[in-house]
Amino acid sequence: MDLIRVLIVEDNPVDALFLKEALREITNTKFSLTHAETIESAQKCLEEETFDVITLDLGLPDAQGIETFLEIKKVNPDIPVVVLSGLDDETVAIQSVREGAQDYLLKDKYDGYLLSRSIAFAIERKQAEKALRRAQQRFELALTGADLGWWDWNIKTDEGVLNEQGARILGFRLDEIAPSREKWRKCVHPDDEPSVLAALNRHMEGSTAAFESEHRLRTKNREWVWILLRGKVVEWDSEGHPVRMAGTIMDITANKTAQEAIRQSEQRFRAIFEAAEDYIFLNDRSSKYIDVNPAAERFLGAPASKIIGKTYKDFLHPEDAAYIRDVDSRVLKGESIQSEHTARINGAMVTLSDTKVPLKDDSGQVIGILTIARDITDLNRIKISPDTMEEYPSKAMQATLKKALIAAKTNITILLTGESGSGKDHLAQYVHRHSLRAGSSYFSINCAAIAPNLAESELFGHEKGAFTGAAARKRGMLELAEGGTLLLNEIGELSLPLQSKLLTFLDTKKFTRVGGEKEISVDARLIAATNRDLEKEVAEGRFRQDLFYRLNVMRIEIPPLRERSEDIPLLVEQLLVKLGVEMQLHERPLISPQILNALKKYQWSGNVRELRNVLERALMLSDGRTLTLAHLGLQDDMQFSSDGNKTSFSISFPTEQSLNEITHDLKRFMVNEALRHSGGSRVGAAKLLRISRYSLKHYMNKLGLDDDME
Ligand SMILES: Nc1ncnc2c1ncn2[C@@H]1O[C@H](COP(=O)(O)OP(=O)(O)OP(=O)(O)O)[C@@H](O)[C@H]1O
């Protein structure tokens, strides 16, 4: 044992000497002894020095009996005191021990052994108490550090204890709170009470290893705090009933508030995500969908459960998927990209405007891609609407459009004339759009394309049983166009009887269906179009003069493309946009001034239709990228020309095109020219080319000239 510092408080010198002797007799222990003869001097010693133990005589000059002990304790209550008394007074002995004395020894009865044992016990007990106190302090500190309070509850007596931190959580001072089950229950939020009590009962019945509950408690200030209450039964009676429970209490209001804020923000985000009309996709780094909104589900034509985990490759055409892959790889490197592209989805061609941004985690690492896509297919259609016609710079076309606009505002029947492919149908649609009938339907019928025996029924409709095969009543184009506009293209092809029926309609706005007797009134505007010389047709008796005069009141001539080459750049631009959508190209190809020049110089015998066909073919050959002269097949080394009667071409060597390509272009030129000379008549064109009608059809198919030529 280390040196033990003893304060001897004794006024009797003999007793003091005896005591010192007795202490010296104790082997294995070294003492340092300080002697005080009065309470006052003893208190002074205690204030100046530290001692391990005090031996105290209860009869001193300045204090007597238990008072002596209490005076000593006032200075430092922690030092163990062994009372040495000459009085064999049991009451004082008991009183001293109750007040905290370690031992009570009678002066004439103790010896060195008894004394040493008493002092050793006193010191040991004090040290054990100190250690326990320290452990308790550490425990309290740990709980306070973790913002935890503790509680202890006697189930039988319903008396509880809450430590300071626990009381503070509820806004009380320690001395203000005396917890019991009932008081606690009254503080629990009514909404939480059933679940808390159920959890407590389950644990007390032994169904759970521990009791744990998150609930709201009312504080002293009548506010709600969220707490996490944990506990366990720690004592049972002999019959196995729980007697005591103890545990911790923690304030989790901040956590709960943060969780609630996150929940609300997630809810807001969800609402936007679900209601958005734009398609929203979230993909991880390997392109797998991790979330899609309902609009995206509709767009891809599958529920989210069938989309999540798949990639865009499972839904898109391989070419479209390749485009997305390229853009996504840039976004994964951190770029935000806005782009327009077309894609084939469920058999339809859709133009999308995409915004793609990288999804990042807290450390800034890109973990995926957020895509917001908007369907702009219709917007693109508007871009290529015929209204942009008004921007054509050529005087000829401006005059045509001016006239068309004036006519559009009236109900007058219009006659559109112009070479095949010059855009008569296109102009008729323009008139319709600018007329008061714009909100109603526009129909177009090519009189040359209907079999003569069905033409009347197509135009005017028929009654049930009007002819073999007329199983039901059918409304004709005129009736369908009620309130709107009907274009009769190639009107020169109409038979004379039908011309006369049409004239009647123009005069009366009435007609009868084939096989019917009842007159039907229809308010449809008629536009007639032809690429024939109607005056000549009238002179040769193939067209009714009265109908011609009736139609010729408002005649609008569409100039051939070769006479308005200034319009070519704008036309090319419009046609490329249109073709780009139709051909599902992601980007619009670049056109050099050199190409535009070549296109302007070219003699467009097939007009806008031919220009469209040339561009379409060039796009196919160029794979949708930059167009070259070779793609157009209109190189300078080969010039076709026609003076109306004669057709010629010149060529220079070495050629840029192969013999096959030159032959292809030459055939195309010849067929177009023949059709032009024959006024679009295939029979006439075939005769001019000295081939059969079927061979002509075959060539037109092969050369990509047939679809609009019907
Ligand atoms: N201004 C234009 N802008 C864009 N495309 C046009 C324009 N004019 C004509 N086209 C296109 O050229 C082709 C021929 O046009 P359209 O059918 O109107 O000619 P048309 O004179 O009626 O021909 P046809 O007499 O052979 O019936 C169509 O594909 C049409 O879309």
Structure description:
InterPro entries: AAA+_ATPase (IPR003593), AAA_lid_NorR (IPR058031), CheY-like_superfamily (IPR011006), Homeodomain-like_sf (IPR009057), HTH_Fis (IPR002197), P-loop_NTPase (IPR027417), PAC (IPR001610), PAS (IPR000014). Residues 163-207, 265-335 form the PAS domain. This is PAS domain S-box. Keywords: ATP-binding, Nucleotide-binding, Phosphoprotein, Transcription, Transcription regulation. The chain has 710 residues and is α/β, with parallel strands linked by helices. Helix content is 43%, strand content 22%. The chain has 27 helices and 26 strands. The strands form seven sheets. Strands 2-1-3-6-7 form a five-stranded parallel sheet, with helices on both faces. The chain has a five-stranded antiparallel sheet with strand order 9-8-12-11-10, sandwiched between helices. A five-stranded antiparallel sheet has the order 14-13-17-16-15, with helices on both faces. The longest helix is centred in the first third of the chain and has 34 residues, at 112-145. The structure holds adenosine-5'-triphosphate. Residues 389, 418, 420-426, 489, 531, 571, 574-575, 608-609, 612, 680, 708 line the site of adenosine-5'-triphosphate.
Describe this protein with a few key phrases.
710 residues; alpha/beta; Rossmann fold; Beta-Lactamase; 5 domains; 5-stranded parallel beta sheet; 5-stranded antiparallel beta sheet; 26 strands; 43% helix; rod-shaped; binds adenosine-5'-triphosphate
